[in-house]
Write a structure and sequence with these properties.
By secondary structure, the chain is mainly beta. Helices cover 6% and strands 44% of the residues. The strands form 2 sheets. Strands 9-10-11-12-13-3-4-5-6-7-8-14 form a 12-stranded mixed β-sheet. The chain has a two-stranded antiparallel sheet with strand order 1-2. The radius of gyration is 18 Å and the shape is globular. It starts with 11 loop residues before the first strand and ends in a 6-residue tail after the last strand.
């Protein structure tokens, strides 16, 4: 699963086989995050700030996700402990709850209190999929345009518009993503993705997170071993 959606940021939540899955609309980069703590875009206006979000790749956070896809509203919570363990939880329109736990060596899917453990697929770290690293910022630089200062969940934010007119080779899937960067600490506070009249909003809160894995989990055999 990938959490980077709408171009490099916003993805589509779909219900598959009774579980919520996240479908990526972009190719995940295998480039390792740079050790640099921020990315800068030179300003053409003396009064305009630079695009310089802090690299929060290894930080713990809670992200609140809401929006619409295919005309249906959805909401979800994503938690990351900063050490490669994440929890994704959501409730569908019928009131059924879903949870996904990802660790470096396994994935646990839970529905209505029943959990199944799947072996690791050997893919890149889930944290790498759910956060922004230097290669993401370098991509955003290509089209980032300053929109001004606005209120945001972190207080006051500089707002940047990132456009991608050709997603996965399909020009009809034009995307626009607003990135809200906190003026206080330069972290990304909020991301709003807009595509074909649908809007997805992600609000980030950076804080200590502890994720407790569920007990009494049914473990499926690894058929690839």
């Amino acid at each position: 699963m990938s959490y980077k959606f709408l171009g490099p940021l916003i993805g589509v939540l779909v219900f598959v086989g009774g579980f919520v899955a996240i479908t990526s609309l972009s190719d995940d980069s295998e480039t390792e995050p740079s050790s640099s703590s921020s990315s800068e875009v030179a300003s053409t206006d003396a009064n305009e700030p630079t695009f310089a979000p802090v690299n929060t790749f290894d930080e713990s956070f809670v992200a609140t996700i809401s929006g619409t896809t295919e005309g249906q509203s959805f909401s979800a919570i994503l938690e990351s402990d900063g050490n490669g363990v994440t929890k994704f939880s959501s409730t569908d329109e019928n009131g059924s709850s879903f949870e996904f736990y990802n660790t470096p060596d396994s994935t646990i899917n839970c529905s209505e209190g029943q959990c199944v453990k799947l072996p690791s697929s050997g893919e890149a770290s889930n944290t790498e999929e759910y956060t922004f690293n230097q290669s993401d910022f370098d991509k955003f630089k290509e089209t980032a345009e300053y929109e001004g200062e606005e209120d945001c969940p972190a207080g006051k934010c500089d707002v940047w518009l990132v456009a991608d007119d050709d997603v996965a080779g399909n020009p009809s899937q034009s995307l626009e993503t607003k990135i809200y960067i906190s003026k206080k600490d330069q972290r990304i506070s909020q991301v709003v993705g807009m595509q074909n009249g649908e809007v997805t909003t992600i609000v980030y809160e950076f804080k200590d997170v502890t994720i407790t894995l569920p007990e009494n989990v049914q473990e499926l055999p690894n058929f690839n071993s």
